[in-house]
């Protein structure tokens, strides 16, 4: 009945995934190319990886990025979690519309605008209160925290709105105070969302070029900024090697995370099945 | 309905009220050795079934028994793995759902949320390219039939459950399908509304003369509405018959249990004559006398099915008969208003359920907890089951 | 209530119950207010200033002069934007490129999202993960990957010339086509995910009902599936369109010197010309154009997450 349709959908999926993955695959393949030219395969070699690890500026930039990522993701969690909680559990309050606007807008705001506006804020603040003095890691962390917090808020909010409020009400009914409910009931329930939010923030921070470029100062060059300045000139095999490392690291992380999630879900499903004796 | 054909159909309906008993009767819908597998799971297993014109046929069973799969194969949403399905003599293999002479009322009603009531009902007619004026007229007629004319411009989310159900019915009937398929048509309604709607559905069916095939898990609903019922379990039809036949002459413990309440007593056939049979039962602690031949080998295990309302309780051992009379103690009483049910623990430990109508208002309950009673029944009330 | 003096802990608990709510709202509110909203006001302010060779390189808007505030609003930046065709064409270009890319992304993303939504259990999870995975890997690297493919000496030209289909290398990189490819490629997951979630939530029996009522499959898709997936189409399109208008990296790396986009213009004004007021007015002008789609995005975002509606 739907043979033609499934053939169409199948080819759309195949084309789409080829489109998504072939370029990445090519980067990985050519990172092992002996020669410097993209189009000519000169034999297998890992020399570009060796080059990469000898590039001190690149390594420094990578450390900067990792440190910024860790700090921004953690701060974003601290600010985004209450924001998500407020959006899904606090009902109406004065200024809610503006609040939800400030959470939704960073998700789509063009980076150049966010970057410019934050830089101007930092300059103004320095003039008025003397802090932050100059620009560097601190300003990058603040900037990244701001847009990452919006992502965390959305992740937490969608997890919470998929959850039954009666669990929290039951805790309240049994005599738990609001703060206690949050730490004993709500927090454990949204833990997967918090982990996802943190990971998302970390990678977004690691990935950001435009905003960092605006608010960075001397000595706070991040990895994307370094990469950008070298790829502006064209393809570089060293960057291929770096790209491969990043792609592999992130893929492994994501695959492990999703296998863990899937396994715990399957285990839970099996347990429910055993407990109730109902076959799936 | 102004169509002449429909009026003719309705007359035929009156002439042969039980076409399934007519050897010359031509089935309108025919399942021929139909099997449906999902992976290794047999959802429907070698089912053959005939449904006649103008019937209100119910497929009855618990969840996962294959009744919905059978209905969906009729609608064309699933293809049988094996076997054939005929509607009005036409093989339905390779006929897509949108060309079948069937329409379906979905369990969820599946009303298009972005269309008004009117548009929903008109949808099917639009597909067949009727003129605007005709569509308008037929939609109006149909909405009047289900008493929803007032709500024609509303969107589905502005309607109550009962109103949605009526719109769904109107939408599936407006194309005058040869067969209307109903998937748990009243499942989403509350009890009071359900009872009322049951009769309305039957009235509409009688008015239009359309063949209805209905899926339900609610035995009461099936009994009230259907001309015939097929009881299904694990992809197999256990028994087909009128509500009366199924209730009074179940062919298996499954059917007996599924329709109404029943006491099942296990025993061994010890004597089988032309006119009577005796079943020795350790379950109940004695012999059970049956007033007809059982036609089984002596020594086979059988079950005697007794409906609670066919049993009688008495405080004294009845004198006129020694047959089918067992002593016990009242353990539980359930007062249901119209009747009371008593759970009697026999000396063997077997619990028997007896229900008695409460015919008078001022009478105290006749029995109370721990009363010594005798359970007895008329010999004709028992049915004997061999499976 | 009672005469017994409450302990410190009880006092704290009571205080928390009364003020905890404000505290929980306050922290994210203040942060976002200070670091998201206030900056825009500052950008607005500076867009009315004049450029100066100073630190910071713009004039003050408010000056305390003799017991009064002297406000020096300078509309010159905006007039300059309007008078110079470079800015106008950069705007129109950005909108055109973003719009065309959004449509292409939708055309590629819709069948994919539909296919994933129709797939069964474990396959569906796998496909979904395959869509999300590139989204987690570096944006910059994904854009970079196309340089090697589209370049004059890139893989496409090498392949085509190797097969003797063309004799002269095609110029793909440094054209608008390359920018389209880059945007579609990097933003495709943003289109697929919201589409998938509306398509997946859709009641399958609606489509069956349409078929049952005599509707042919393609028509059922057009009259039922498509209109019902409109929220997903809108959300996905806005998620692609809005950031694409202000995109900097893709036109910079894949586009040619003639591919003017407003994000790139802003970057150049700021980093190359060091004209902060002009950069600010470019940002404000972009924001004015984007404010309607952004508010609309927020509206539908709120609608999908509010279970009450």
Automatic annotation (TrEMBL), chain A:
The keyword Transmembrane applies. The keyword Membrane applies. Its main location: membrane. It comes from the Bacteria. GO terms for cellular component: plasma membrane. It comes from Thalassospira profundimaris. Keywords: Cell membrane, Membrane, Transmembrane, Transmembrane helix, Transport. InterPro entries: Bact_Polyamine_Transport, MetI-like, MetI-like_sf. GO terms for biological process: transmembrane transport. The chain crosses the membrane at residues 7-32, 68-87, 99-125, 137-160, 181-200, 239-261. Belongs to the binding-protein-dependent transport system permease family. CysTW subfamily. It is found in: Cell membrane. This is Spermidine/putrescine ABC transporter permease.
From TrEMBL, chain C:
Keywords: Cell membrane, Membrane, Transmembrane, Transmembrane helix, Transport. It is a multi-pass membrane protein. The chain crosses the membrane at residues 21-48, 95-114, 126-147, 178-199, 220-245, 276-297. InterPro entries: MetI-like, MetI-like_sf. It is found in: Cell membrane. Pfam families: BPD_transp_1 (PF00528). One of its GO terms (cellular component) is plasma membrane. Residues 91-297 form the ABC transmembrane type-1 domain. PROSITE patterns: ABC_TM1. It comes from the Bacteria. Its main location: membrane. One of its GO terms (biological process) is transmembrane transport. The keyword RNA-binding does not apply. Belongs to the binding-protein-dependent transport system permease family. CysTW subfamily. This is Spermidine/putrescine ABC transporter permease. It comes from Thalassospira profundimaris.
């Amino acid at each position: 009945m739907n043979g033609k349709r499934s053939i169409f959908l199948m080819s759309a999926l195949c084309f789409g995934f080829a489109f998504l993955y072939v370029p990445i695959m090519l980067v990985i393949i050519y990172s092992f190319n002996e020669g410097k030219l993209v189009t000519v395969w000169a034999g297998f070699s890992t020399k570009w990886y060796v080059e990469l690890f000898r590039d001190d500026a690149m390594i420094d930039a990578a450390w900067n990025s990792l440190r910024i990522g860790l700090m921004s993701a953690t701060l974003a969690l601290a600010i985004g979690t209450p924001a998500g909680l407020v959006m899904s559990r606090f009902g109406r309050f004065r200024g809610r519309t503006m609040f939800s606007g400030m959470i939704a807008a960073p998700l789509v705001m063009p980076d150049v605008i966010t970057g410019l506006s934050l830089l101007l804020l930092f300059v103004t603040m320095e003039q008025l209160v003397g802090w932050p003095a100059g620009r560097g890691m601190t300003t990058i962390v603040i900037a990244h925290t701001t847009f990452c917090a919006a992502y965390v808020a959305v992740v937490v909010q969608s997890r919470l709105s998929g959850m039954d409020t009666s669990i929290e009400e039951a805790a309240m009914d049994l005599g738990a105070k609001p703060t206690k409910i949050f730490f004993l009931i709500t927090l454990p329930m949204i833990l997967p969302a918090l982990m996802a939010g943190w990971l998302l923030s970390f990678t977004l921070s690691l990935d950001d070029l435009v905003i960092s470029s605006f608010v960075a100062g001397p000595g706070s060059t991040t990895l994307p900024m370094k990469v950008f300045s070298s790829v502006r000139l064209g393809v570089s095999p060293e960057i291929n090697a770096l790209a491969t490392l990043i792609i592999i690291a992130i893929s492994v992380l994501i695959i492990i995370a999703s296998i863990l999630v899937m396994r715990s879900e399957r285990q839970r499903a099996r347990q429910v099945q055993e407990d109730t004796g109902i076959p799936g | 309905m102004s169509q002449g054909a429909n009026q003719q159909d309705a007359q035929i309906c009156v002439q042969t009220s039980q076409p399934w008993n007519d050897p010359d009767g031509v089935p309108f819908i025919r399942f021929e050795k139909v099997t449906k597998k999902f992976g290794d799971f047999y959802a429907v297993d070698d089912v053959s079934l005939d449904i006649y014109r103008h019937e209100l046929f119910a497929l009855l069973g618990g969840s996962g028994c294959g009744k919905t799969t059978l209905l969906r194969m009729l609608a064309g949403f699933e293809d049988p793995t094996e076997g054939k399905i005929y509607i009005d003599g036409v093989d339905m293999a390779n006929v897509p759902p949108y060309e079948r002479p069937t329409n379906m009322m979905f369990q969820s009603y599946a009303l298009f949320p972005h269309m008004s009531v009117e548009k929903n009902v008109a949808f099917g007619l639009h597909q067949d390219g009727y003129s605007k004026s005709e569509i308008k007229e037929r939609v109006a007629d149909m909405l009047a039939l289900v008493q929803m004319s007032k709500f024609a411009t509303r969107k589905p989310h502005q309607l109550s459950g009962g109103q949605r159900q009526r719109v769904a019915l109107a939408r599936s009937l407006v194309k005058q399908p040869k067969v209307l398929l109903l998937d748990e048509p009243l499942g989403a309604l509350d009890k009071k509304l359900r009872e009322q709607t049951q009769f309305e559905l039957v009235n509409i069916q009688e008015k239009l003369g359309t063949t209805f095939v209905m899926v339900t898990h609610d035995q009461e609903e099936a009994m009230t509405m259907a001309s015939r019922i097929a009881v299904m379990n694990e992809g197999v039809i256990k028994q087909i018959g009128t509500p009366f036949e199924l209730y009074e002459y179940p062919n298996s413990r499954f059917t007996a249990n599924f329709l109404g309440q029943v006491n099942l007593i296990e025993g061994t056939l010890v004597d089988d004559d032309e006119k009577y049979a005796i079943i020795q039962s350790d379950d109940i602690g004695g012999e059970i006398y049956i007033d007809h031949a059982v036609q089984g080998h002596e020594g086979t295990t059988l079950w005697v099915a007794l409906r609670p309302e066919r049993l009688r309780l008495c405080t004294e051992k009845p004198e006129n008969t020694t047959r089918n009379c067992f002593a016990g103690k009242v353990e539980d009483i359930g007062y249901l208003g119209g009747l009371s049910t008593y759970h009697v623990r026999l000396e063997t430990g077997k619990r028997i359920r007896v229900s008695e109508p409460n015919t008078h208002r001022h009478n105290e309950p006749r029995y109370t907890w721990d009363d010594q009673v005798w359970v007895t029944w008329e010999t004709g009330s028992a049915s004997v089951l061999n499976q | 209530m009672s005469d017994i003096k409450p302990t410190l802990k009880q006092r704290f608990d009571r205080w928390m119950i009364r003020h905890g709510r404000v505290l929980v709202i306050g922290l994210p509110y203040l942060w976002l207010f200070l670091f998201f909203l206030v900056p825009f006001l500052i950008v607005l302010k500076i867009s009315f200033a004049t450029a100066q060779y100073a630190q910071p390189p713009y004039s003050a808007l408010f000056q305390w002069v003799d017991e009064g505030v002297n406000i020096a609003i300078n509309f010159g930046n905006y007039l300059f934007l309007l008078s110079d065709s470079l800015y106008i064409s950069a705007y129109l270009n950005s909108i055109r490129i973003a719009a065309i890319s959004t449509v292409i992304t939708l055309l590629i993303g819709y069948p994919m999202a539909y296919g994933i939504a129709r797939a069964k259990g474990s396959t569906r999870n796998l496909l979904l993960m395959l869509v999300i995975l590139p989204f987690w890997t570096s944006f910059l690297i994904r854009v970079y990957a196309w340089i090697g493919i589209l370049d004059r000496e890139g893989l496409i030209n090498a392949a085509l010339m190797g097969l003797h289909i063309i004799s002269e290398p095609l110029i793909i990189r440094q054209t608008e086509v390359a920018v389209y490819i880059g945007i579609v490629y990097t933003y495709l997951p943003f289109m697929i995910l919201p589409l998938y979630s509306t398509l997946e939530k859709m009641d399958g029996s609606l489509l069956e009902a349409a078929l049952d009522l005599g509707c042919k499959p393609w028509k059922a898709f057009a009259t039922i599936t498509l209109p019902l997936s409109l929220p997903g189409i809108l959300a996905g399109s806005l998620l692609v369109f809005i950031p694409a208008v202000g995109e900097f990296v893709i036109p910079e790396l894949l586009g040619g010197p003639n591919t003017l986009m407003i994000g790139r213009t802003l970057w150049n004004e700021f980093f190359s010309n060091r004209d902060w007021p002009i950069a600010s007015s470019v940002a404000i002008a972009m924001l004015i154009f984007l404010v309607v789609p952004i508010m609309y995005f927020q509206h539908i975002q709120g609608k999908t997450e509010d279970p009450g509606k």
